[in-house]
Amino acid sequence: MKSSHPTARGRYGSDLETVSHSMLGLAGLFAEMATQGVPRATLLEGTGIALAALDDANARMDHRQKLLLFRNVLCLSQVPGVGLRAGQRQRLSDFGVYGYALSSSATFGEAVTFGIRHIKLAGPVLEKSFRIENGVAVFEGHDVIALGELLPLVSEFWFSSINTLIARVMDRPLPAYRLLLPYAAPAYADLYPEVFGCPVEFSSAVMQWHFDPAFLELPCPNANSITADMCRQFCGRMLESISPNEPELVR
Protein backbone atom coordinates (compact mmCIF):
# COMPACT_ATOMS: atom_id res chain seq x y z
CA MET A 1 0.00 0.00 0.00
CA LYS A 2 1.27 3.44 -0.86
CA SER A 3 2.31 5.55 2.09
CA SER A 4 3.29 8.80 0.41
CA HIS A 5 1.40 11.85 1.61
CA PRO A 6 -1.10 13.42 -0.81
CA THR A 7 -0.33 16.97 -1.74
CA ALA A 8 -2.81 19.83 -1.47
CA ARG A 9 -2.64 23.51 -2.28
CA GLY A 10 -5.16 26.33 -2.43
CA ARG A 11 -7.02 27.09 0.75
CA TYR A 12 -5.17 24.48 2.78
CA GLY A 13 -1.73 25.67 1.74
CA SER A 14 1.24 23.46 2.54
CA ASP A 15 0.45 22.83 6.22
CA LEU A 16 -2.27 20.17 6.11
CA GLU A 17 -2.08 19.64 9.87
CA THR A 18 -3.67 23.02 10.61
CA VAL A 19 -7.06 21.93 9.24
CA SER A 20 -9.02 19.60 11.51
CA HIS A 21 -12.06 17.39 10.94
CA SER A 22 -14.39 15.48 13.22
CA MET A 23 -15.06 11.80 12.57
CA LEU A 24 -18.55 12.50 11.22
CA GLY A 25 -19.60 11.56 7.71
CA LEU A 26 -17.30 8.55 7.27
CA ALA A 27 -19.53 5.68 8.39
CA GLY A 28 -20.70 4.84 4.88
CA LEU A 29 -17.11 4.58 3.70
CA PHE A 30 -16.15 2.13 6.43
CA ALA A 31 -19.37 0.16 5.90
CA GLU A 32 -18.72 -0.21 2.18
CA MET A 33 -15.11 -1.28 2.69
CA ALA A 34 -16.23 -3.82 5.31
CA THR A 35 -18.37 -5.52 2.64
CA GLN A 36 -15.16 -5.87 0.63
CA GLY A 37 -13.45 -7.59 3.56
CA VAL A 38 -11.42 -4.56 4.66
CA PRO A 39 -11.76 -3.96 8.42
CA ARG A 40 -11.62 -0.49 9.92
CA ALA A 41 -8.18 -1.05 11.43
CA THR A 42 -6.71 -1.93 8.04
CA LEU A 43 -8.27 1.13 6.43
CA LEU A 44 -6.60 3.33 9.06
CA GLU A 45 -3.10 1.94 8.59
CA GLY A 46 -0.53 4.65 8.03
CA THR A 47 -2.96 7.50 8.75
CA GLY A 48 -2.10 8.00 12.41
CA ILE A 49 -5.82 7.81 13.26
CA ALA A 50 -6.48 5.57 16.26
CA LEU A 51 -9.22 2.96 15.87
CA ALA A 52 -10.88 4.20 19.06
CA ALA A 53 -11.13 7.70 17.56
CA LEU A 54 -13.85 6.53 15.17
CA ASP A 55 -16.23 6.16 18.10
CA ASP A 56 -15.09 9.26 19.99
CA ALA A 57 -17.23 12.39 19.61
CA ASN A 58 -14.31 14.57 20.68
CA ALA A 59 -11.71 13.01 18.38
CA ARG A 60 -10.23 15.05 15.54
CA MET A 61 -8.09 14.28 12.50
CA ASP A 62 -6.16 16.71 10.38
CA HIS A 63 -6.58 17.22 6.66
CA ARG A 64 -3.49 15.18 5.80
CA GLN A 65 -4.86 12.21 7.73
CA LYS A 66 -8.19 12.38 5.97
CA LEU A 67 -6.52 12.41 2.56
CA LEU A 68 -4.42 9.41 3.59
CA LEU A 69 -7.61 7.59 4.55
CA PHE A 70 -9.03 8.21 1.07
CA ARG A 71 -5.75 7.05 -0.44
CA ASN A 72 -6.06 3.79 1.48
CA VAL A 73 -9.57 3.34 0.11
CA LEU A 74 -8.27 3.95 -3.41
CA CYS A 75 -5.52 1.36 -2.93
CA LEU A 76 -7.56 -1.31 -1.14
CA SER A 77 -10.92 -1.24 -2.89
CA GLN A 78 -11.57 -3.82 -5.58
CA VAL A 79 -15.04 -2.52 -6.48
CA PRO A 80 -15.65 0.09 -9.21
CA GLY A 81 -17.33 3.24 -7.98
CA VAL A 82 -16.57 2.60 -4.32
CA GLY A 83 -17.20 6.27 -3.48
CA LEU A 84 -20.65 6.19 -5.07
CA ARG A 85 -21.56 3.00 -3.25
CA ALA A 86 -20.22 4.23 0.08
CA GLY A 87 -22.18 7.47 -0.15
CA GLN A 88 -25.39 5.53 -0.68
CA ARG A 89 -24.83 3.77 2.66
CA GLN A 90 -24.90 6.99 4.68
CA ARG A 91 -27.55 7.42 7.36
CA LEU A 92 -28.83 10.65 8.86
CA SER A 93 -27.19 9.76 12.16
CA ASP A 94 -23.82 9.40 10.44
CA PHE A 95 -23.73 13.21 10.26
CA GLY A 96 -24.52 13.65 13.95
CA VAL A 97 -26.33 16.73 15.19
CA TYR A 98 -25.54 18.42 11.87
CA GLY A 99 -27.80 15.92 10.11
CA TYR A 100 -30.61 16.42 12.60
CA ALA A 101 -30.28 20.20 12.30
CA LEU A 102 -30.90 19.87 8.57
CA SER A 103 -33.77 17.43 9.01
CA SER A 104 -35.61 19.63 11.53
CA SER A 105 -35.31 22.79 9.39
CA ALA A 106 -38.55 24.42 8.25
CA THR A 107 -37.78 24.16 4.52
CA PHE A 108 -35.13 22.64 2.30
CA GLY A 109 -33.88 26.14 1.49
CA GLU A 110 -33.39 26.82 5.19
CA ALA A 111 -31.56 23.50 5.52
CA VAL A 112 -29.26 24.41 2.63
CA THR A 113 -28.46 27.82 4.11
CA PHE A 114 -27.57 26.29 7.45
CA GLY A 115 -25.78 23.35 5.86
CA ILE A 116 -23.50 25.52 3.75
CA ARG A 117 -22.63 27.81 6.66
CA HIS A 118 -21.70 24.78 8.76
CA ILE A 119 -20.43 22.60 5.92
CA LYS A 120 -17.23 21.71 7.73
CA LEU A 121 -19.24 19.55 10.12
CA ALA A 122 -20.04 17.28 7.15
CA GLY A 123 -16.32 16.69 6.64
CA PRO A 124 -15.62 17.92 3.08
CA VAL A 125 -12.08 18.10 1.74
CA LEU A 126 -13.03 20.64 -0.93
CA GLU A 127 -14.44 24.12 -0.60
CA LYS A 128 -18.16 24.27 -1.39
CA SER A 129 -20.59 27.05 -2.22
CA PHE A 130 -24.24 27.46 -3.19
CA ARG A 131 -26.09 30.02 -5.31
CA ILE A 132 -29.07 30.49 -7.60
CA GLU A 133 -28.04 31.60 -11.07
CA ASN A 134 -30.26 32.12 -14.13
CA GLY A 135 -33.11 30.26 -12.49
CA VAL A 136 -30.97 27.26 -11.53
CA ALA A 137 -29.84 26.23 -8.03
CA VAL A 138 -26.13 25.38 -8.06
CA PHE A 139 -23.89 23.55 -5.60
CA GLU A 140 -20.27 24.13 -6.60
CA GLY A 141 -16.93 22.65 -5.56
CA HIS A 142 -13.75 24.73 -5.61
CA ASP A 143 -10.01 24.18 -5.52
CA VAL A 144 -10.42 20.75 -7.12
CA ILE A 145 -6.87 20.57 -8.48
CA ALA A 146 -5.59 20.07 -4.93
CA LEU A 147 -6.66 16.42 -4.77
CA GLY A 148 -4.87 15.04 -7.83
CA GLU A 149 -5.63 11.34 -8.35
CA LEU A 150 -7.96 11.33 -5.34
CA LEU A 151 -10.38 13.74 -7.00
CA PRO A 152 -12.76 11.15 -8.55
CA LEU A 153 -13.03 9.12 -5.34
CA VAL A 154 -13.51 12.15 -3.09
CA SER A 155 -16.06 13.67 -5.49
CA GLU A 156 -18.00 10.42 -5.78
CA PHE A 157 -18.18 9.95 -2.04
CA TRP A 158 -19.04 13.58 -1.30
CA PHE A 159 -21.79 14.00 -3.89
CA SER A 160 -23.25 10.55 -3.27
CA SER A 161 -23.25 11.19 0.50
CA ILE A 162 -24.99 14.54 0.13
CA ASN A 163 -27.45 13.08 -2.35
CA THR A 164 -28.32 10.40 0.21
CA LEU A 165 -28.47 12.94 3.04
CA ILE A 166 -30.90 15.11 1.08
CA ALA A 167 -33.11 12.09 0.39
CA ARG A 168 -33.09 11.30 4.13
CA VAL A 169 -33.97 14.90 5.05
CA MET A 170 -36.71 15.35 2.44
CA ASP A 171 -38.03 11.79 2.07
CA ARG A 172 -37.55 12.19 -1.67
CA PRO A 173 -34.61 12.52 -4.09
CA LEU A 174 -33.16 15.85 -5.18
CA PRO A 175 -34.64 16.92 -8.56
CA ALA A 176 -31.24 17.36 -10.18
CA TYR A 177 -30.82 18.74 -13.69
CA ARG A 178 -27.21 17.72 -14.27
CA LEU A 179 -23.87 17.06 -12.57
CA LEU A 180 -20.67 18.51 -14.03
CA LEU A 181 -17.35 16.96 -12.98
CA PRO A 182 -13.79 18.10 -13.84
CA TYR A 183 -12.28 14.69 -14.54
CA ALA A 184 -12.49 12.11 -17.30
CA ALA A 185 -15.31 9.59 -17.32
CA PRO A 186 -14.27 6.41 -15.48
CA ALA A 187 -14.95 2.92 -16.86
CA TYR A 188 -18.00 2.69 -14.59
CA ALA A 189 -19.46 6.07 -15.66
CA ASP A 190 -22.86 4.47 -16.25
CA LEU A 191 -23.26 4.17 -12.46
CA TYR A 192 -23.38 7.95 -12.01
CA PRO A 193 -26.80 8.61 -13.62
CA GLU A 194 -28.21 5.69 -11.65
CA VAL A 195 -27.05 7.27 -8.39
CA PHE A 196 -27.88 10.91 -9.12
CA GLY A 197 -30.87 10.54 -11.40
CA CYS A 198 -29.61 13.11 -13.90
CA PRO A 199 -27.19 13.49 -16.83
CA VAL A 200 -23.52 13.64 -15.83
CA GLU A 201 -20.96 15.60 -17.83
CA PHE A 202 -17.32 14.63 -17.35
CA SER A 203 -14.15 16.59 -18.24
CA SER A 204 -15.99 19.80 -17.37
CA ALA A 205 -14.22 23.06 -16.57
CA VAL A 206 -16.19 23.28 -13.30
CA MET A 207 -17.55 21.06 -10.55
CA GLN A 208 -21.26 21.89 -10.27
CA TRP A 209 -24.52 20.20 -9.36
CA HIS A 210 -27.61 21.86 -10.83
CA PHE A 211 -31.13 21.34 -9.53
CA ASP A 212 -34.64 22.82 -9.51
CA PRO A 213 -34.72 25.88 -7.19
CA ALA A 214 -38.43 25.25 -6.50
CA PHE A 215 -37.25 22.38 -4.29
CA LEU A 216 -35.87 24.97 -1.87
CA GLU A 217 -39.38 26.08 -0.98
CA LEU A 218 -40.59 22.64 0.09
CA PRO A 219 -41.12 22.00 3.82
CA CYS A 220 -38.93 19.41 5.50
CA PRO A 221 -41.11 16.45 6.60
CA ASN A 222 -39.51 16.40 10.06
CA ALA A 223 -39.45 20.15 10.65
CA ASN A 224 -39.44 21.17 14.30
CA SER A 225 -38.40 24.66 15.35
CA ILE A 226 -37.36 23.68 18.90
CA THR A 227 -35.25 20.74 17.72
CA ALA A 228 -33.75 22.87 14.96
CA ASP A 229 -32.76 25.62 17.39
CA MET A 230 -31.19 23.15 19.84
CA CYS A 231 -29.25 21.37 17.10
CA ARG A 232 -28.05 24.62 15.56
CA GLN A 233 -26.74 25.94 18.85
CA PHE A 234 -24.82 22.70 19.36
CA CYS A 235 -23.48 22.80 15.80
CA GLY A 236 -22.23 26.35 16.35
CA ARG A 237 -20.25 25.25 19.39
CA MET A 238 -18.94 22.19 17.60
CA LEU A 239 -17.80 24.21 14.60
CA GLU A 240 -15.95 26.58 16.92
CA SER A 241 -14.19 23.64 18.58
CA ILE A 242 -13.03 22.30 15.21
CA SER A 243 -11.76 25.52 13.67
CA PRO A 244 -11.96 28.50 16.04
CA ASN A 245 -9.71 30.71 13.95
CA GLU A 246 -10.55 29.60 10.42
CA PRO A 247 -12.85 31.27 7.88
CA GLU A 248 -15.85 29.32 6.61
CA LEU A 249 -15.28 26.78 3.86
CA VAL A 250 -17.72 28.54 1.53
CA ARG A 251 -17.94 31.87 -0.17
Textual characterization of the structure:
With 251 residues, the protein is α+β, with helices and mostly antiparallel strands. It has helices at 27-35, 40-43, 63-76, 82-88, 96-103, 108-117, 151-170, 191-196, 225-242; strands at residues 20-21, 61-62, 127-133, 136-142, 176-180, 200-201, 207-211.
Helix fraction by DSSP (H/I, runs of at least 4): 25-40%
User: What is the spatial order of strands in the main beta sheet?
Assistant: 3-4-7-5-6
Question: How would a textbook summarize the main sheet?
Answer: 5 strands, mixed
- Given the structure, what is the number of helices? 9
Mean pLDDT, all residues:
88
Radius of gyration: 17 Å
Number of strands: 7
Order of helices and strands: EHHEHHHHEEHEHEEH
Distance between the termini: 37 Å
Low-confidence stretches: 1-15, 245-251
Approximate shape: globular
Strand residues, percent: 5-15%
SS-based structural class?
alpha+beta
Keywords:
251 residues, disordered C terminus, alpha+beta, two-stranded antiparallel sheet, disordered N terminus, 9 helices, 5-stranded mixed β-sheet
